[in-house]
Amino acid sequence: MTTPDATTSDDAPVFRLAFVPGVTPGKWVRIWEQRRPDVPLDLVALDVADCAEAIGKGRVQMAITRLPDALRHGDAGAHHSIELYEETTVVVVPKDHVLTAGDEMTLADLADEQLLWPLDEPMTVEQRPGTAVSHRPETTGDAIELVAAGIGVLLVPQSLARLHHRKDLVHRPVTDAPTSTVGLLWPQPTTDLADEFIGIVRGRKATSSRGRTDEAPKRSAREKAAAKRAAREAAGKIPGKSSRRGPGRPKRR
User: How many CA atoms within 13 Å lie on the side-chain side of 97?
Assistant: First the structure.
């Protein structure tokens, strides 16, 4: 289904933006508030697994989520997406774990480990290393608690490891692990407010005329040529009617 810009109970426009754990949209939100003080931006915290359905059912107008992971859950309907940046994948382990000996590792280094795979699935790993712990915690936060308890280790995007930082845990990059891409997901067709936010994320200046209804109409090539000639005549660079006759010179017949 397509989704128009949302409205408040007073029929004033509002833009509902979902974001997933680990993503920090603060800078973009501040720019939005400066450029569009007339349109409130409502932030909606969602898990990756809930973003597609929220877009498809019109509960939010855009989501900053992990791609393509979000599209493996639920139906986003007709939609657009763009990739913003790629995240490093890390393994979270207890501070005294043997894996902390190196600065980085590969999936082969996890072959003998018990791995936790939370149900909120912040990232998809098709070929999972090691042995999966039979119990699947509900959330990444719950999985972090189990890592601290020595139940297993956890593969996550680096931003989530930082979000759930604990003094008794550390994380190390896994150089050959699948990575997670953070991007924008929104329904078709693209609304004016969605285009406004995309412009903010992409660094479009506030003075950009893209998408503005008050943009000056473009002149034709003939109009441009006529304007150029008029300017040159006014500057005396082309003989015009006024420049061909000096004072007192008789008019030719």
Answer: 27
Residue 237 is predicted with a pLDDT of 52
Residue 41's contacts (CB-CB under 8 Å, 6 or more residues apart) are 14, 15, 16, 17, 29, 32, 33
Single-letter code of the amino acid located at 74: G
- pLDDT the model gives residue 85: 93
How far CA 236 is from CA of 30, 228, 244, 252, in Å, comes to 51, 13, 10, 20
User: What is the mean pLDDT, run by run of 10 residues, along the chain of 253 residues?
Assistant: 48 88 94 95 94 96 94 92 94 94 92 94 86 94 96 95 95 93 95 95 73 42 60 54 46 46
User: Residues 106-113: contacts with CB within 8 Å, 24+ apart?
Assistant: 106/174, 106/175, 106/176, 107/174, 107/176, 107/177, 109/174, 110/153, 110/155, 110/174, 113/152, 113/153
Tally Cβ neighbours within 10 Å of residue 104.
12
Neighbours of 214 (CB within 10 A): 5
Whole-number Cα distances in Å, 168 to 35, 164, 204 = 43, 11, 42
